[in-house]
C-alpha cells in the first residue's frame, strides 16, 4: 500500500517508536518567539543543560512588539519584559535572534518561508498554533506547548502520537473575487471549528494546485481553526520556484540534491486516508464570519442562520455568540457599519496581500469614520512595499502602513480594537476579546477588508471593485 505525504515525512523522522507510546520525532527546524519561550529557557537553566542544537532554532520577536516607533522602548511593561527576556535567553543559549531592528525581524510564520528556512520534507515546530502555515511547502509543521518547546530545545526531538490523515480536495475554478482566505473559511464553515480534530490535513485538487505560495500559506495557516493538528500541500514547481535563491535555501549541488528529494514528496495514488472531503470551487463566494469562532462563517451575500437552523444542543452557544457580536439570527451582514479594518497577521500580511489591496484601493479614499491598519508581516515585506511605492498608495487612501508584528490579530500588544467596535480582520481568529476586550471581529479576505475600508460597511468587494 502506498503512503500519504504526511506518512512519508513523519516516518522518516521517527527516532524511536514503541506500541502504545508516542513516537520520538526528530525536528529539523524550531522557531521560537517571546511569548512561549521564557519558561522553556528557565527549565533548561534549572537543569543546567544547553540547547542541544542551537543552529536548528531561530528566534524572532513578533507577538508583543509595537507596530509604530519600534526604535523606541516598548511602552507596555509586560510586552517590554517578554521581548527583553527573549534577547537575554537567546544570547545566553547561543540561538540566532531576529529582534527589533533586525532586517529579518517579523512574524515567525512569515520570515521562515521568505528566508528559505522553511523547506519541503521538514518537520517544523513552534510554540504557536499557526505553525501549520509552513505546511504549504510540503512540511509537517505544527504548534507545540511551552513544555514541548523545552523538550525540543533540550533534545531536538518531540514526543507525539501520530495523528490520523485527512484529505481535503477543492476542485474546479474559483469565481472572480474569491481568494484563498475564502476557500479556507468556506471549508471551516462546512465542517465546523472542530471538524478536523485529531487529523493532519493534506489539501489537494486543482483549485489548490493553482494557488500561489502566499495563498497556500493562508490555507495551511488556518488548519488549526478547524481543529486539525496541521495542514500541508504537496510541493511542486510553484514551491520550488518560490524557494530558489532565498537567503538560507540550498544552493548549487545542494540545491540539486534537495530538489531530487522534494520531487518524491507526494501522496501515492494508492495511499489511504482516514477521511476524504471534496468541495467544488464554484460553490465558494467571498466569505465572512458572524460569530465568535472561525466556523461561524457564511457567504458575504447570505444571512446569519436562524435559531431553527441550528442544532438544539448548539443553540445556547450560538445565542451567546450573537449576543456578544450584537447581531440577530436570520439577518444579513451586508451594510453593517465597520469601525476598524485590520489587514495583516500570519494569515494575510505578505507582499502579495499588500499588492492586492494597493491595486484595489489605488485612487480611492477610505471612509471617514473607519480606522485602517495595514501591518506587514516582516521587515522584508515592509521594505518591498516601500520600494514598490505601495506605501504611497496606502497613504493617499488614508490607510496607515505600520511596522511588522502580530499587531491587532491578538490583544497582546498596543494595537487593540476598542470595546464594542467592529473590525473586519484578515487574521485567523474571532474569539471573544481576541482583538481587545469586548472587541467584535469579522474575519474576511483582504479583498473584502479593502471594500469595507472604502465604504465603511460590510460590502461585497466584487461590486465595489467591479469583478
TrEMBL record:
EC number: 4.2.1.33
Reaction equations catalysed: (2R,3S)-3-isopropylmalate = (2S)-2-isopropylmalate
Boundaries of every Aconitase/3-isopropylmalate dehydratase large subunit alpha/beta/alpha domain copy: 7-456
Ligand binding ([4Fe-4S] cluster): 346, 406, 409
Entry superkingdom: Bacteria
Metabolic or biological pathway, per its Swiss-Prot or TrEMBL entry: Amino-acid biosynthesis; L-leucine biosynthesis; L-leucine from 3-methyl-2-oxobutanoate: step 2/4
Cofactor binding summary note: Binds 1 [4Fe-4S] cluster per subunit.
Needed co-factor(s): [4Fe-4S] cluster
GO molecular function: 3-isopropylmalate dehydratase activity; 4 iron, 4 sulfur cluster binding; metal ion binding
Keywords: 4Fe-4S, Amino-acid biosynthesis, Branched-chain amino acid biosynthesis, Iron, Iron-sulfur, Leucine biosynthesis, Lyase, Metal-binding
Pfam families, alphabetized: Aconitase (PF00330)
Biological process (GO), any one: L-leucine biosynthetic process
UniProt cross-references to Gene3D superfamilies, sorted A to Z: Aconitase, domain 3
NCBIfam families for the chain: leuC, PRK05478.1, PRK12466.1
Protein role: Catalyzes the isomerization between 2-isopropylmalate and 3-isopropylmalate, via the formation of 2-isopropylmaleate.
Record PANTHER family: 3-ISOPROPYLMALATE DEHYDRATASE, HOMOACONITASE, MITOCHONDRIAL-RELATED
Quaternary structure and partners: Heterodimer of LeuC and LeuD.
Xref: HAMAP family: LeuC_type1
Similarity annotation: Belongs to the aconitase/IPM isomerase family. LeuC type 1 subfamily.
Protein name as catalogued: 3-isopropylmalate dehydratase large subunit
Organism, as annotated: Chitinophaga flava
Lineage, broadest ranks: Bacteria, Pseudomonadati, Bacteroidota, Chitinophagia, Chitinophagales
